[in-house]
Amino acid sequence: MKRNLKDRIDALKRFFQSWKGLMICILICCGLNGCTSNGDKKPNLLFIMTDQQPFNCVGVYGNDKIHTPNLDQLGAEGVVLENFYIAAFPCSPSRASILSGRYLHNHNVFTNNVWMDTSIQSLGHLFAAADYHTGYFGKAHLGGSMYVGRQDGDGIDYMHDTTPADPVGEDITQYWHYERIEGDSGWLLQRKDGGVGEDFPQLGFRVWAGGWRQYKDWLISHGQDSFALTAGNHDALQSAPEGEHMYSRLGEDYHMAHFFTEETKTFILEHQKSERPWAAVLSYFGPHLPVSPPQPWDTLHSLEDVDLPHNLIDSLEGKPIAQKKTELQYVLGQWSEDQYKDYIRRYWGYCAYIDNRIGQVFRLLKETGQWDNTIIIFTSDHGDMVAGHGMIFKLGSNAYEELFRVPAIISLPGGEFQGLRIKELASSVDLLPTILDAAGIAVPAEIDGKSLLPFLKDQVAQHRPAVFAEIHTSNHGGKVIMCRSQRYKYVYHWLSSDVDELYDLEADPGELNNLIGDESYREVVDNMKDFIVEWSRETGHRYASLIGTKQ
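Predicted structure:
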């Protein structure tokens, strides 16, 4: 009896020692290989945003000539939103809407260089409060003037000047911003001292790398003092004026896109073994003008590769007069077909270069075992005309598809909803609540957007009957609200006597024929205007009563 008991005790000891040894081996292996159990860990977040990239400049949206293999693969493994629209224009208002989930009139950023109210919770605040490591790498344009220390604070003349007369050097001072002042007929600008530019942590993010001070310091640390004198933000040291073939003299490895990619990778590596998840925004300054990708991306395509858009030729008859007045952007009759083709091929090359850098981050996530536990979002703050309607750049007095419809791809952990292509209308204010929903973080009540996850799970109910977007400059002619329904687009110039616009996107996807004066569409016009007035009231627009008064 005693012997049997001793045998049992010895067996238990051997089992415990064996189990203990096995566990030690497992722990050692996990420590060496970075293996962690994701069962209870919240998902990471990688939010990628480009600047001025229209929907038709990503391969997965039907462009079979552009080289964006990494985004195309992300689209194949995730959800592609085919009819996704920005909620505000231009850069700063759109970014504020994306990061806060609010319409333009509910955040304080109604034009560029406005310092976003620090009391408004954005993506960074909400993820930091949920105990995430947070980092922002790239363009924000929500802290006031970006070009601190440069004369007038506006960088270079992208159309002509290739050698700025006011290099910054080490004199990064004189921070300033605009404040929003309420007037009788719209918000006005008031310039004030102060702001953070691109140079200091903001928007709730704890780790920060911007395109001005930090980028210049990085160039100097790599022996590129001459580049650091003038380069930064959108100033990519283009080799020629617009209208001629150009490339960035920074090259691939000193371009700001490379800098932001490397900073993002460092952030991911630093937190890969943390028990806390991380949330990173990677925000590129391209393919925004000047359209000067580094070599050899500028000649990735030949002129023969490029087909000009079907809506290149547009006389703009019957459309707002303001569209014809931007001679540096409406270049029809000034440019040859080859100049348009060169612009497009440079644009495609810039998108391809950025896609290549995005691919480096994707590979790192896969190599470190974090891909399957990371929410990945890709979008852009607005588009570019890329020769549509004879235009280049971003013409603020229109709401054409090229400018307001942008790519949006959502990839959720575990391949949920893999391969879905959603034709339902969605707005950029919907991204933040969707991300919060996917991460299990409560969505604040003051957010205007609504999560897409319920629709993705049950594709029966309509997500939105219409989407809305706003432009609100300080002049009378620059106050525009766009309403896009399933079939029609109505562009309402609510404080201007200029003509409004109505397009039938089924019959006229190129938006060449303005139907606003066609009496057979009078009911459609009235309904669309009613949509806008109702939307302005329901969402608390300060000028809702004024918006409804135009006859």
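Summary: The two ends are 104 Å apart (CA to CA).
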